[in-house]
Automatic annotation (TrEMBL):
It comes from Paraburkholderia panacisoli. InterPro entries: AMP-bd_C_sf, AMP-binding_CS, AMP-dep_synth/lig_dom, ANL_N_sf. This is D-alanine--poly(Phosphoribitol) ligase. It comes from the Bacteria. GO terms for molecular function: ligase activity; phosphopantetheine binding. PANTHER family: FATTY ACID SYNTHASE, NONRIBOSOMAL PEPTIDE SYNTHETASE. Keywords: Ligase.
């Protein structure tokens, strides 16, 4: 069986309906069970006032029920808004206010939770959306990326180029609030394959995703390069440990040459695909198989070619994307849409904010960001969103988040600096519980590993806080005597 997005129906009902569709943290579902559960979810949602074009927040972690709710929403025509439990309640509430949501669905309790009483649910201005993904925003508010159903269709068509085989078994590792996870969700739904969900908590407690992948005969590993890098410490992460693995599908951040070399040694026959793209262009836009020839010719590695109906080009050193997979726009952010989106040949276009270049044959390279957006273990973070949270700590002092980078340019961790005025470099007593305060507002991966008091934040020639100088001073040992709550790098 499989799910047909064009008709919102399960089709091929006679083909392996008892094969597993979802291996979840709380239960497993066959294709037949997924179809029944999604239909029942759709009815329950309708009874709660949800309808076509009314967004539905789905909150949870790696329950099979998360997939049930997403598919049920697709059947209803209601765009789903995935929110992982890594997001604190306050962040969820802010997203709910942006959406004007009247309720959300909790996949752990399998219940709709009311958010405001007595008001009819509101439909969005955009119609026929598949989902809305909230990413970090520079103003301190997460931005809602609206992805149309036509964009997901384009993603599904494009994924055929990856040749993942019939009924692939995908390993899902990233949270559903990170759009890379839509590779596995739509890969599984469109092919009649299986998705194996991996809970965050066992990962944090050290349980091995490699063991889970082996247990369920995973064929396609989807993750950020950082995640795979961490698995290299596990000797079971090898062709012998994962005999059914055929493909590594990477996305979300730079794919380091060193990681590819290590993987080529451990998995000589497994294909390695590097894909690139922002959430705003439905998961990814360019791709390339990194084989020995590409590895020998390029360092850093290329992000590949755009095999879409649209195109990718470089304008003023910035990568720009055009095509049906480009978002409909940020929700309620006409200001941003006006500067980041454009139309070309009748298609939507998006300026990525990524520096890029193209070789003579059209091979594309990404050279980092124009702005203050960073990636930390694959998570997309606007430093200005952390700044905004730091500035709201008691004292309302100017503050800045500063990324500390490894020699290869990747971010190892983020340190916060707060202006304390006169006196020494210590933090005032009112800031003792800064971590707990930030945790009320930011997901754990956005909380700086240290907060350092600073007499005055340095500014650059254009009067912006000089993050580079702060990082340099930190590395030079300037703040050594006064660091607080340091964590190992
Ligand atoms: P996200 O919206 O979380 O998928 O993050 C998108 C951003 O991650 C892009 O704009 C790039 O800055 C970066 N990125 C994604 N994939 C790659 C890649 N393969 N190589 C380099 N940077 C990447």
């Amino acid at each position: 069986m499989r799910f047909d997005l064009a008709t919102s129906h399960f089709v091929d009902a006679d083909v392996d309906p008892d094969a597993f569709a979802v291996i979840g943290s709380e239960r497993n579902l066959s294709w037949r069970e997924l179809a029944n559960a999604s239909e029942a979810w759709c009815e329950a949602a309708r009874a709660k006032g949800f309808a076509a074009d009314v967004p539905v927040i789905v909150r949870g972690d790696k329950e099979a029920e998360f997939v049930v709710a997403m598919v049920g929403a697709l059947m209803l025509g209601a765009p789903y808004v995935p929110i992982d439990t890594v997001y604190p309640d306050e962040r969820m509430q802010r997203i709910a206010r942006t959406l004007d949501a009247h309720a959300y669905y909790d996949t752990r309790t399998r219940a709709f939770v009311p958010l405001r009483d007595g008001m009819a649910p509101n439909a969005l201005r955009e119609t026929h959306l598949a989902y809305i993904m909230f990413t970090s925003g520079t103003t301190g508010e997460p931005k809602g990326v609206q992805i149309g159903r036509e964009s997901v269709n384009a993603l599904i068509d494009w994924m055929h180029h990856f040749k993942l085989g019939t009924a692939p078994v995908f390993l899902n590792l990233v949270p559903f609030s990170f759009d890379v996870s839509m590779y596995e969700v739509f890969g599984m739904l469109s092919s009649g394959g299986t998705v194996v969900l991996t809970e965050r908590s066992p990962l944090e407690s050290g349980a091995s995703p490699v063991v889970r992948a082996a247990e369920h005969n995973v064929t396609t590993w989807v993750s950020t390069p950082s995640f795979a890098q961490r698995q290299l410490l596990d000797s079971r992460f090898s062709a012998q440990g994962l005999p059914t693995l055929r493909t590594f599908l990477f996305c979300g951040e730079v794919l380091p040459v060193g990681l590819v070399r290590a993987l080529r040694t451990r998995f000589p026959d497994v294909r390695l695909i590097n894909t690139y793209g922002p959430t705003e262009a439905t998961v990814a836009t360019t791709w390339i198989v990194i084989d020995d020839e590409v590895l020998a010719r390029h360092s850093p590695l290329p992000i590949g070619y755009a095999n879409r109906e649209g195109q990718v080009f470089v304008d003023d050193d910035e990568l720009c994307i055009v095509g049906p997979h480009v978002m409909r726009g940020y929700l309620n952010r006409d200001d941003l849409n006006a500067t980041r989106m454009f139309t070309r040949n009748g298609m939507r276009g998006f300026r990525t904010g990524d520096l890029g270049s193209a070789g003579d044959d059209g091979l594309l390279f990404c050279h980092g960001r124009i702005d203050d957006q960073v990636k930390l273990t694959g998570y997309r973070i606007e430093l200005m969103e952390i700044d905004a949270a730091l500035c709201e700590l008691p004292g309302d002092a100017p503050a800045a988040a500063v990324p500390l980078r490894r020699p290869d340019g990747s971010v190892a961790r983020i340190v916060g600096f707060v202006e304390t005025g006169e006196g020494d470099w210590r933090l005032p007593d009112a800031l003792r519980d800064w971590q707990a305060r930030l945790a009320e507002r930011l997901p754990s991966y956005m909380i700086p590993s240290e907060l350092i008091g600073c007499r005055a934040l340095p500014v650059s020639a254009n009067f912006k806080i000089d993050r580079a100088r702060l990082a340099e001073d930190y590395r030079g040992g300037h703040f050594k005597a006064v660091t607080h709550a340091a964590q190992p790098e």
